[in-house]
Specification:
The complex is a heterodimer. Helices cover 29% and strands 25% of the residues of chain A. By secondary structure, chain A is α+β, with helices and mostly antiparallel strands. The longest helix of chain A is centred in the N-terminal third of the chain and has 27 residues. The two termini of chain A are 24 Å apart. Chain B is 32% helix and 16% strand. Chain B has two domains: 77 residues, Ubiquitin-like (UB roll) (Roll), CATH 3.10.20; 64 residues, [2Fe-2S]-binding domain (DNA polymerase, domain 1, Orthogonal Bundle). A five-stranded mixed beta sheet of chain B has the order 2-1-5-3-4, with helices on one face. By secondary structure, chain B is an alpha+beta fold. Classes of the chains: A alpha+beta, B alpha+beta. Chains A and B meet through helix 4 of A and helix 4 and helix 5 of B. Bound molecules: FE2/S2 (inorganic) cluster (2 copies). The site of one FE2/S2 (inorganic) cluster has 12 residues of chain B, from loops.
């Protein structure tokens, strides 16, 4: 028999290393040839979009087109350490470091412009679109290009460092504020359980994710889609078959992950609630996007057949077994 | 050793290959076409997908000598002079590339699909790429990219 069910799952997740562990990101900004600006940052791009997002944050802070920015990363001989691409921390932590480095770079440019333009003070100077100029007398200006020419490539630079605020929990009571910031999300699922075959078919999925601010909405959707699919596999198919420390399902013919036929179009809702300590309000979502999907699917299965599943993945055999055990229990009563 | 002649990305090659060499090794090691990726080596992931005489094959499961007198297309054979193939452009525009490991195989499966069926439904697109695993994107933006490219 086919039974329909609905379920929701909610999650909150602290990003960054947390629990008092030192969490430091660094970035360096340099004026290069021809007025281009180099952002040097040791954050690793693994497809999550760190390069794009950090370049966008830099462009916003420098009030410069992204085309004018040269982004250098993943070369440890050139870039300051920005910590690991882990803990969903690059957008928030390294984003803050890039923003601080850009702000320091702007201050450095203003000092230089004060000398070059023979001004009494750097007060009232603005930096925009590759020019440093006096706000109330724009004829007094010097461009990044001119500075590149007279100072040479790489000689005007500034560093930025962001040290995240986290506090270790009290080991006795487990109390404290181990993470900062937190991100929130919710997933809703409609599915059909076939009680004869034990197959679960997802019919509709809605996913709302708080990102603080979506620096790049396209990439945010990509993370949400990816997290959903990975969680779907984790709940329904993926089984390492671990026995005595040995993984028996050690190939794709045994360890099944979702294909394009197993996933569906997720209705994504991006929630923007800017975080005051974040770069332009943006928080990381790499890991949290997986979390609420499992509970939502399991709740929907419960809604459909009235049976709580407590072991993953919910393979057809396990589901049939759970239904049978539940029937036996009911008969006993 | 076996002597084979084949066409790869429109270029003729005559080569001596070992009897037990796989097509993927011929393409990667002998011809330097490293856009052909190796994932599982057992025909499950599709990272090594190439087009052989119009059909997608897993090049990890084809022996090099079996490619004698065949016409092979790899991802390197898709872009014209300095311009991207419409599918490559659509993948970029739709945000269908994350880590990129599945991308060459995905694009070739999509090309083989569109060559046979220029106007596939979403269901047909999903089926057409079902032999290619992607761990990053959840497939939605890949399906969207193929949808965008089908009219071009
Ligand atoms: S490497 Fe050939 S299918 Fe996975
Ligand atoms: S983009 Fe990473 S596997 Fe598809």
């Amino acid at each position: 028999m086919k039974k329909r069910g609905r379920g929701i799952g909610l999650a909150f997740y602290g990003t960054g290393y947390g629990n008092g562990f030192p969490d430091v990101s660094r970035a360096r900004i340099r004026l290069l040839d021809d007025g281009k600006v180099g952002i040097y940052v040791g954050s690793t791009e693994v497809g999550q979009g760190a390069k794009t997002v950090l370049m966008q944050i830099g462009a916003e802070a420098l009030k410069l087109d992204v085309e004018e920015i040269v982004f250098i990363t993943e070369d440890t001989s050139l870039t300051p350490d920005a910590g690991t691409a882990a803990a969903s921390r690059q957008t928030y932590n390294t984003g803050n470091a890039v923003k601080i480095a850009c702000e320091n770079f702007i201050e450095r440019l203003k000092e230089i412009a004060k000398e070059e333009l023979n001004l009494n003070s750097s007060y009232g100077l603005k930096v925009e679109a590759g020019n440093i100029f006096l706000d109330f007398f724009p004829q007094k200006k010097i461009s990044f290009k001119e500075l590149s020419k007279s100072y040479g490539s790489g000689n005007i630079e500034a560093d930025g460092e962001f040290v995240a605020q986290t506090i270790m929990m009290d080991p006795e009571t487990g109390q404290g504020a181990p993470y900062w910031p937190y991100t929130f999300n919710a997933c809703g699922i409609e599915l059909v359980v076939d009680t004869l075959t034990g197959l679960v078919e997802i019919e509709r999925a809605v996913f709302a994710q708080d990102v603080g601010r979506a620096v790049n909405p396209h990439l945010v959707e990509g993370q949400m889609d990816g997290g959903f699919a990975m969680a779907l596999g984790y709940i329904l198919f993926e089984d390492l078959n671990l026995k005595d420390g040995k993984i028996y399902n050690n190939k794709f013919s045994k360890y099944l992950i979702p294909t394009a036929m197993d996933t569906i179009k997720v209705e994504n809702i991006i929630v923007e609630d800017p975080e005051s300590t974040a770069p332009y309000g943006a928080k990381g979502i790499g890991e949290p996007v997986m979390i609420p999907v499992g509970p939502a699917i399991l709740n929907a299965i419960y809604d459909a057949i009235g049976v709580r599943i407590t072991e993953l993945p919910v393979t057809p055999e396990r589901l049939i077994k759970a239904i049978q055990e539940d029937n036996e229990r009911k008969e006993e009563i | 050793m076996v002597k084979i002649d084949l066409l790869v990305n429109g270029k003729k090659h005559s080569l001596e290959v070992e009897e037990d060499m796989r097509l993927i090794d011929l393409l990667r090691e002998k011809l330097g076409l490293t856009g052909v990726k190796e994932g599982c080596s057992e025909g499950e992931c599709g990272a090594c997908t190439v087009i052989m005489d119009g059909e997608v094959v897993n090049s990890c499961l084809v022996m090099a000598f079996q490619a004698h007198e065949s016409n092979i297309i790899t991802i390197e054979g898709l872009d014209g002079e300095g311009s991207l193939h419409p599918l490559q452009q659509a993948f970029i525009d739709a945000g269908a590339v994350q880590c990129g490991y599945c991308t060459p195989g995905m694009i070739l499966s999509a090309k083989a699909l569109l060559d046979k069926n220029p106007n596939p439904t979403e269901e047909e697109i999903r089926e057409g790429i079902s032999g290619n695993l992607c761990r990053c994107t959840g497939y939605n933006k890949i399906v969207e990219a193929i949808n965008r490219a089908k009219g071009v």
